[in-house]
Amino acid sequence: MNNTPYIFDIVRGSFDDGPGIRTTVFFKGCPLKCSWCHNPESQLYRAEIAWNENSCIKCNACKTVCPNGAISDKDSHRINRILCIGCGKCVDVCVHALKRIGTIYSPEGLVEILMRDKVFYDTSGGGVTFSGGEPFSHLSYLLEVCRELKKQGIHLAAQTSGFFNYELFEQTIQPYINIIYFDLKIINRNQHFFYTGQYNDLILKNLRKLASYKQQKLIVRTPLIPKITATDENMAAIKTLLADLKIDEYETLEYNPMGQHKYTIIGKKQTHVI
Ligand code: SF4
Ligand code: SF4
């Protein structure tokens, strides 16, 4: 979908994103807009600016340098998110209230960062995990990264929403990925659309294909969102589907309600506060 992906975080020394010690790369951009998302800064496919009102001294330096007139001092220095192009000029002149979310790395540059912890991967059985956002929105870029990492013997995992182009995935990075963590959220088609902004047809189709591809490990996961995914009806439907597809690796993820502040600083509102 995007040849020059933005990355919003690279977490080294992670124990939560696969076996052993891992470095996890968080890509920006997601085709889903889950109402409970605790990483709202991952949703947009481009850079954006976070503004922390409590740290702002109202000096107006940001407004002066903005080339797009995206900053207003009438509305508590709010950033007009439609006018903002994420150039980061305002961040350069701000002491501490603004932060640019989203950085572009060349494939070689990213590989260089990821290889810094090879000794930890080797000694712990770890590796690299691609997350997001939706990492499989960036398959041509990932192909370059995966090729190089595999040459160096790095174990690779990916966390996906399941909403991606399977044919392209198959032709590019599928042979390189050792483990796929596949989010299966809601089985009811209309409810899936209501809570994530997308129907689940493509996700279910991709899950079936991955389940029949036996050469990589597949772990299905459901985030437990009260009254949305964690209902008796939905959990029973998931169980039935997994049995039908003969998928025996399954995990649930506890709901993380810590995202509200993240919505505020990037000028968004959480649509469903749980
Ligand atoms: S430059 Fe930073 S501190 Fe000054 S008004 Fe802009 S956001 Fe606030
Ligand atoms: S990132 Fe660029 S366009 Fe957006 S508010 Fe800052 S200076 Fe203006």
Describe the structure.
Helix content is 31%, strand content 19%. It is globular, with a radius of gyration of 20 Å. The chain has helices spanning 61-65, 89-93, 107-115, 118-124, 139-151, 166-171, 189-196, 201-212, 232-244, 260-265; strands at 7-14, 22-27, 48-51, 98-101, 127-131, 155-160, 179-183, 217-224, 250-254. The chain folds into two domains: 7-40 and 106-257, Aldolase class I (TIM Barrel); 48-101, Alpha-Beta Plaits, CATH 3.30.70.20. It has 274 residues and is of the alpha/beta class. Helix 3 (107-115) packs across helix 5. Strand 8, helix 9 and strand 9 (250-254) form a beta-alpha-beta unit. The chain has ten helices and nine strands. One iron/sulfur cluster is lined by residues 51, 56-62, 77, 93-95, 97-98.
Distance from first to last alpha carbon = 31 Å
Q: Which secondary-structure class do the elements indicate?
A: alpha/beta
Estimated share of beta-strand residues: 15-25%
- Gross geometry: globular
From the 3D structure, determine the CATH topology of the largest domain. Answer: TIM Barrel
How many structural domains?
Answer: 2
What molecules are bound to this protein? iron/sulfur cluster
The proportion of residues forming helix, as a percent range, comes to: 25-40%
Adjacency order of strands in the biggest sheet: 1-2-5-6-7-8-9
Q: CATH H-level name of the largest domain... which superfamily?
A: Aldolase class I
The largest sheet is: 7 strands, mixed
Mean pLDDT: 94
> Regarding CATH, which class of the largest domain?
Alpha Beta
Low-confidence stretches: none
Q: What's the helix count? A: 10
List the secondary-structure elements in sequence, H or E: EEEHHEHHEHEHEHHEHEH
Topology, number of strands: 9
- Using only C-alpha atoms, the radius of gyration works out to 20 Å
CATH architecture type of the largest domain: Alpha-Beta Barrel
